[in-house]
Amino acid sequence: MPATHDFRLNAQPGGPFGIAWTIDGVAMDVQHHQHEMAPSLTLERGRFVRLHFTNESPRIHPIHLHGMFFRLLARNGVRVDEPFFRDTVLVHAREEIDIGVVPTMPAPG
Questions:
Q1: Alpha-carbon distance values, 65 to 47, 59, 87 (Å)
Q2: Taking a C-beta distance cutoff of 8 angstroms, is the pair 77, 54 a contact?
């Protein structure tokens, strides 16, 4: 099954500590506590989706899905067989991962 979306992870100069993490080129404004962002993807409740994350930066980037558990499916295209669900995964520098998730709660709105 192809990925529903490829999230691009990176960093740019800025932020209170000199670095601003980005997802798909958009940085969260942590200095002014602006954590509300428009969703880059809306998932259908009860339907399995595969999501792909590419870490373009030279740093580890954590991925945490609020209110959802997921399975890690692959790292750099190599299948991973983990017998458990996660809510967070570390994406290593220049690494790509695939996760599988089935949203169980309705989208906010």
A1: 16, 19, 6
A2: no
What does pTM read for this prediction? 0.84
List per-residue pLDDT tens for the chain, 109 residues long. Answer: 777 889 999 988 877 778 888 888 888 665 555 555 666 778 888 999 999 999 999 989 889 888 889 999 999 999 999 999 999 999 999 999 999 999 888 766 5
Length of the chain: 109
**DSSP assignment of the chain:** ---SEEEEEEEEE-STTSEEEEETTEE-BTTTTB-----S--PPTT--EEEEEEE-SSS-EEEE-TT--EEEEEETTEE---SS-BSEEEE-TT-EEEEEE---SPPP-
Structure tokens at 10: 């990176």
Rounded CA gap, 23 and 9, in Å?
Answer: 5
Give 91's Cβ-side CA count (13 Å radius): 26
